[in-house]
Amino acid sequence: MRSLLTLLFISALCTCALAQKTISGCVVGEDNEQLIGVSVYVNGSADGAATGLDGCFSFEQRGDSVALKLTYVGYVTQYAVAYANKPLTIKMKLSHDLLDEVVVIGYGESRRESPSRKTRSAAAPSTTADYAPVASPDTYEVTYERVDGTSDLAAASTPDISAGQLTAGETNDFGKWELWTDISKEDLSEFRDIWQFYPDNRYATQLTFPNGHPAVDVPVRLVNRWGQTIWSARTDNRGRAELWAGMTGDSLTPASQLTLVAEASGKTYSIPGAQLFQDGLNTLELPRQCNQRTEVDIAFVVDATGSMGDEIRYLSSELTDVINRAQANLPGAELRTSAVFYRDSSDVYVTIHSDFTEKPEATVGYVKSQAHGGGGDHPEAVDAALQTAVDSLAWREEAAARLLFLVLDAPPHQDETSRKRLHETTRQAAEKGIRIIPVVCSGMTKDGEYLLRSVALATNGTYVFLTDDSGIGGKHLAPTTDSYEVEKLNDLMVRVIGQFSETESCDDPTDLSSLEENVRKKGDLRLKAFPNPTPGPVTVKLPRSEGLLSVIDLNGKLLQQLEVTGRRQELQLGGLAAGTYILRYEDGEESRVVRIVLTR
């Protein structure tokens, strides 16, 4: 037993050593002269270094970013967020009045009100900034309370917990668009201006190849009449892209003056006079040969603060199960996984990550090795976590799916800098085709719900939330919606991964051509149905008012079947997952088929 513990300890030390990254920078006074001997420590720990003769410091530290504490005799104690491998210049202030101490954090300053509660204020870098401008991410304004006596609790220190215990639900606002429109402007309207996300003006686009297969991972832009790009996205595994006007409060341009531009194989294809979703779906057939994408990148971004302690042990087991099952459920996919853990700017680290790997066991090991601790207030560094996930992870240039599961129990800070970072990161995620899927744990508030549902919409994702049905954790926030189904969290996540990742083979044996081959023996008859693509309702024109009408998926599975009662038959496909289906009519004498593309 002692030998096993020794091996585990050595393994942990090796893992930590591999994860060390360089934190460096220089410290100057108000006269821009180098300060020698400044103590620079990771806030809350003994790790750090002193500045040398050149006024600079450098040390190795675990994490993508850390909160630093700087002390120097005769100068104000200062704090800053430093990012790995991005040198930072910090300007310290002389302490003219210790009773009126100023705490500098990020690019701004704040007066200290009490030892237990601090308000951080940060503005964008300027000529009067407290730090000299450097090429590193902006720091952000935060208000937080330090909770004395908190400590890290390692997940490995608790007994193994079986997966399948947490319960969850899903609210996909694309599937309930009219309801979401009402909710966002009525029930949750007070939060619109707080976060400055306005998911109202939606331009839904469906791209297909000539054979009817969805065109996957095609860049699409919404452009105004001056050629300026308003929003960028990439088509998903169903050939669908969601683009937005005015999402972050930008001025609106009439739809008639907007153009949708798709880029495929070095050529540009346009849809002039883009239609808002309520006026119809924007469709485009690309005159290109069908190609199937099988690459799938999945990132798990997890809040590791102390407030997650009631559920983090269970979540570790659930995520491990999801990672293992994802590969098994996508046998033809080139799957990679990664993980990002984050805390807040006052903790030992802000974000740490393990980049994409084709070995799921590596991500599983990383997830299991994490601990929770720190934090202490409600808002956390969600914006920093998303920035790390979108910018620092090596997402593939071409893929069938790029999924980001954001597991959290608190919203980000509401200051202007954090909002701007959220806006920019959300735009970048949409442009890269990264679909953000929040997984909300106990403790979330309504303002956070509005924000996260908006981010999910902006990136063509969906909104997942834990429920009280499991009896695990604190009180869970029920979303503002009409209804939802309760599922096991691991099953739900595996289902979403499948729905967002599975793609059609260009030579699928059960596609339209194989069905037509059988039909040609009876005269090569075709069925007429409209609209196509459709968000759900379909009208089918039939040769006779009798027979059977069937809905079949591309695996040949019968999904629906009904007896025909008239020459015009109405179908509702809205309950099925988005994708391509076959409608087949049979009356004992002939068979007719048509391919239907179902959108959300």
TrEMBL record:
It comes from the Bacteria. Residues 113-133 are annotated as: Disordered. Residues 1-19 form the signal peptide. GO terms for molecular function: protein serine/threonine kinase activity. The keyword Nucleotidyltransferase does not apply. Keywords: Signal. InterPro entries: CarboxyPept-like_regulatory (IPR008969), Secre_tail (IPR026444), Thr-specific_kinase-like (IPR052969), VWF_A (IPR002035), vWFA_dom_sf (IPR036465). One of its GO terms (cellular component) is cytoplasm. Coiled coil: none annotated. Residues 297-484 form the VWFA domain. This is VWA domain-containing protein. It comes from Neolewinella aurantiaca.
